[in-house]
From TrEMBL:
Catalysed reaction, written as an equation: 5-carboxyamino-1-(5-phospho-D-ribosyl)imidazole + H(+) = 5-amino-1-(5-phospho-D-ribosyl)imidazole-4-carboxylate
One Pfam family linked to the record: AIRC
Species for this entry: Actinospica durhamensis
Binding site for substrate: S17, D20, R47
Record-stated family: Belongs to the AIR carboxylase family. Class I subfamily.
Gene from which the chain derives: purE
One Gene Ontology biological process: 'de novo' IMP biosynthetic process
Protein name as catalogued: N5-carboxyaminoimidazole ribonucleotide mutase
InterPro entries assigned: PurE_ClassI, PurE_dom, PurE_prokaryotes
Keyword S-adenosyl-L-methionine: no
Length: 167
Protein backbone atom coordinates (compact mmCIF):
# COMPACT_ATOMS: atom_id res chain seq x y z
CA UNK A 1 0.00 0.00 0.00
CA UNK A 2 1.51 3.31 -1.04
CA UNK A 3 1.37 6.73 0.58
CA UNK A 4 -1.38 7.69 -1.85
CA UNK A 5 -3.58 4.66 -1.41
CA UNK A 6 -3.00 4.04 2.28
CA UNK A 7 -6.20 5.68 3.45
CA UNK A 8 -4.76 9.03 4.56
CA UNK A 9 -6.44 11.87 2.61
CA UNK A 10 -4.25 13.13 -0.22
CA UNK A 11 -7.13 14.70 -2.19
CA UNK A 12 -9.35 17.37 -0.71
CA UNK A 13 -12.84 17.48 -2.21
CA UNK A 14 -14.53 20.71 -1.24
CA UNK A 15 -17.75 22.35 -2.36
CA UNK A 16 -19.64 25.54 -1.77
CA UNK A 17 -22.69 23.82 -0.31
CA UNK A 18 -23.90 20.38 0.66
CA UNK A 19 -26.36 20.83 -2.23
CA UNK A 20 -23.33 20.29 -4.52
CA UNK A 21 -22.67 16.82 -3.11
CA UNK A 22 -25.02 14.90 -5.47
CA UNK A 23 -22.77 16.20 -8.27
CA UNK A 24 -19.47 16.03 -6.39
CA UNK A 25 -19.84 12.52 -5.01
CA UNK A 26 -18.79 11.18 -8.43
CA UNK A 27 -15.29 12.54 -7.76
CA UNK A 28 -15.18 10.67 -4.46
CA UNK A 29 -16.40 7.48 -6.12
CA UNK A 30 -13.69 7.70 -8.80
CA UNK A 31 -11.02 8.09 -6.12
CA UNK A 32 -12.46 5.16 -4.19
CA UNK A 33 -12.18 3.00 -7.32
CA UNK A 34 -8.43 3.68 -7.31
CA UNK A 35 -8.04 3.42 -3.55
CA UNK A 36 -6.96 7.05 -3.25
CA UNK A 37 -7.54 8.60 0.17
CA UNK A 38 -9.67 11.72 0.19
CA UNK A 39 -11.57 14.03 2.49
CA UNK A 40 -14.79 15.88 1.65
CA UNK A 41 -16.10 19.08 3.17
CA UNK A 42 -18.22 22.18 2.59
CA UNK A 43 -16.00 25.26 2.30
CA UNK A 44 -18.02 28.18 0.97
CA UNK A 45 -16.10 31.07 -0.56
CA UNK A 46 -18.94 33.49 0.11
CA UNK A 47 -20.52 32.22 3.32
CA UNK A 48 -17.33 31.32 5.20
CA UNK A 49 -14.50 33.18 3.46
CA UNK A 50 -12.07 33.06 6.39
CA UNK A 51 -12.37 29.27 6.71
CA UNK A 52 -12.03 28.95 2.94
CA UNK A 53 -8.72 30.85 2.94
CA UNK A 54 -7.55 28.83 5.93
CA UNK A 55 -8.38 25.57 4.13
CA UNK A 56 -6.38 26.63 1.08
CA UNK A 57 -3.43 27.90 3.07
CA UNK A 58 -3.19 24.75 5.20
CA UNK A 59 -3.97 22.12 2.56
CA UNK A 60 -0.40 21.37 1.42
CA UNK A 61 0.95 21.37 4.98
CA UNK A 62 -1.71 18.85 5.99
CA UNK A 63 -0.50 16.45 3.32
CA UNK A 64 -3.05 17.04 0.60
CA UNK A 65 -1.63 16.83 -2.91
CA UNK A 66 -4.60 17.83 -5.07
CA UNK A 67 -7.74 19.85 -4.38
CA UNK A 68 -11.00 19.23 -6.22
CA UNK A 69 -13.32 22.19 -5.74
CA UNK A 70 -16.90 22.30 -6.95
CA UNK A 71 -19.32 25.19 -6.87
CA UNK A 72 -22.36 26.50 -8.69
CA UNK A 73 -23.56 29.90 -9.84
CA UNK A 74 -21.05 32.58 -8.85
CA UNK A 75 -18.55 29.76 -8.46
CA UNK A 76 -15.52 31.48 -6.93
CA UNK A 77 -14.34 28.65 -4.68
CA UNK A 78 -11.90 26.90 -7.05
CA UNK A 79 -10.21 30.11 -8.14
CA UNK A 80 -9.93 31.53 -4.64
CA UNK A 81 -8.41 28.29 -3.35
CA UNK A 82 -5.95 28.28 -6.25
CA UNK A 83 -4.87 31.78 -5.24
CA UNK A 84 -3.78 30.67 -1.77
CA UNK A 85 -2.42 27.14 -2.31
CA UNK A 86 0.49 25.89 -4.43
CA UNK A 87 -1.38 22.60 -4.99
CA UNK A 88 -3.07 21.75 -8.28
CA UNK A 89 -6.75 22.72 -8.12
CA UNK A 90 -9.36 20.99 -10.27
CA UNK A 91 -12.57 22.97 -10.66
CA UNK A 92 -15.98 21.37 -11.12
CA UNK A 93 -18.75 23.64 -12.43
CA UNK A 94 -21.91 22.49 -10.65
CA UNK A 95 -25.08 23.06 -12.67
CA UNK A 96 -27.87 24.84 -10.79
CA UNK A 97 -31.52 25.47 -11.62
CA UNK A 98 -30.88 28.39 -13.94
CA UNK A 99 -28.43 28.97 -16.82
CA UNK A 100 -27.59 25.26 -17.23
CA UNK A 101 -24.27 25.60 -15.43
CA UNK A 102 -22.89 28.15 -17.88
CA UNK A 103 -22.56 30.63 -15.00
CA UNK A 104 -20.62 28.07 -12.96
CA UNK A 105 -18.42 27.13 -15.92
CA UNK A 106 -17.47 30.66 -16.85
CA UNK A 107 -16.90 31.64 -13.21
CA UNK A 108 -14.39 28.81 -12.84
CA UNK A 109 -12.67 28.59 -16.20
CA UNK A 110 -11.79 32.23 -16.87
CA UNK A 111 -8.88 32.53 -14.47
CA UNK A 112 -6.22 35.21 -14.81
CA UNK A 113 -2.72 34.13 -15.88
CA UNK A 114 -0.69 32.95 -12.93
CA UNK A 115 -3.56 31.32 -11.05
CA UNK A 116 -4.46 28.07 -12.82
CA UNK A 117 -7.57 25.99 -12.25
CA UNK A 118 -7.95 22.79 -14.28
CA UNK A 119 -11.63 23.05 -15.13
CA UNK A 120 -13.62 19.96 -16.08
CA UNK A 121 -16.97 19.94 -17.87
CA UNK A 122 -20.21 21.11 -16.28
CA UNK A 123 -21.10 18.40 -13.77
CA UNK A 124 -17.89 16.54 -14.65
CA UNK A 125 -16.94 15.49 -11.14
CA UNK A 126 -16.03 11.95 -12.20
CA UNK A 127 -13.38 13.30 -14.54
CA UNK A 128 -12.14 15.55 -11.74
CA UNK A 129 -11.57 12.45 -9.62
CA UNK A 130 -9.89 10.63 -12.48
CA UNK A 131 -7.67 13.63 -13.24
CA UNK A 132 -6.61 13.82 -9.60
CA UNK A 133 -5.75 10.11 -9.75
CA UNK A 134 -3.69 10.71 -12.90
CA UNK A 135 -1.79 13.56 -11.26
CA UNK A 136 -1.02 11.34 -8.27
CA UNK A 137 -0.11 8.43 -10.57
CA UNK A 138 2.90 10.37 -11.87
CA UNK A 139 4.48 9.69 -8.46
CA UNK A 140 3.12 6.20 -7.88
CA UNK A 141 3.86 3.24 -10.16
CA UNK A 142 1.02 1.09 -8.82
CA UNK A 143 -1.49 3.85 -9.38
CA UNK A 144 -0.13 4.41 -12.88
CA UNK A 145 -0.56 0.70 -13.65
CA UNK A 146 -4.12 0.82 -12.31
CA UNK A 147 -4.87 3.83 -14.52
CA UNK A 148 -3.51 2.02 -17.58
CA UNK A 149 -5.69 -0.99 -16.78
CA UNK A 150 -8.70 1.29 -16.32
CA UNK A 151 -8.10 2.72 -19.79
CA UNK A 152 -7.83 -0.76 -21.29
CA UNK A 153 -11.14 -1.73 -19.69
CA UNK A 154 -12.76 1.51 -20.87
CA UNK A 155 -11.76 0.68 -24.44
CA UNK A 156 -12.93 -2.92 -24.11
CA UNK A 157 -16.32 -1.79 -22.84
CA UNK A 158 -16.73 0.67 -25.71
CA UNK A 159 -15.78 -2.01 -28.24
CA UNK A 160 -18.21 -4.49 -26.68
CA UNK A 161 -21.02 -1.96 -27.04
CA UNK A 162 -20.17 -1.50 -30.70
CA UNK A 163 -20.09 -5.26 -31.21
CA UNK A 164 -23.51 -5.58 -29.54
CA UNK A 165 -24.95 -3.03 -31.96
CA UNK A 166 -23.42 -4.77 -34.98
CA UNK A 167 -24.73 -8.19 -33.90
C1 LIG B 1 -22.82 27.98 -4.38
O1 LIG B 1 -24.16 28.29 -4.27
C2 LIG B 1 -22.74 26.55 -4.00
O2 LIG B 1 -21.60 25.97 -4.54
C3 LIG B 1 -23.99 25.97 -4.56
O3 LIG B 1 -23.77 25.41 -5.84
C4 LIG B 1 -24.90 27.18 -4.70
C5 LIG B 1 -26.20 27.07 -3.95
O4 LIG B 1 -25.96 26.78 -2.61
P1 LIG B 1 -27.19 26.47 -1.63
O5 LIG B 1 -28.06 27.68 -1.63
O6 LIG B 1 -27.90 25.26 -2.20
O7 LIG B 1 -26.57 26.18 -0.29
O8 LIG B 1 -22.03 28.76 -3.57
Amino acid sequence: MSELTGGRPVVGIVMGSDSDWPTMRAAAEALEEFGVGYEADVVSAHRMPKEMIEYGEQAAGRGLKVIIAGAGGAAHLPGMLASVTPLPVIGVPVPLKYLDGMDSLLSIVQMPAGVPVATVSVGGARNAGLLAARILATQDADLMAAMREFQVQLGAQAKAKGAALRA
